[in-house]
Specification:
The chain is an all-alpha fold. It contains three helices and no strands. Helices cover 70% and strands 0% of the residues.
Length: 70
Amino acid sequence: MSNAKPLVRALRGPLLLMILGTLFAVDYFGPYPFYRTWPVLLIAYGVLWLLERVIRDTPAEPESPFGGPL
């Protein structure tokens, strides 16, 4: 679980760029203009932020004095 937080941080930028590109494609080819779909970016950022926060607040597994998990 300790590697999950850097993974979420590493995926945040590329994922938001892919969502932005999808929204521009929907604006160009689809029925919805960008001014109606841009809140999806805020929702995605909020979900990623919440996921990172949940991962950060998850307590680590206790370790035994002999070096392994209990």
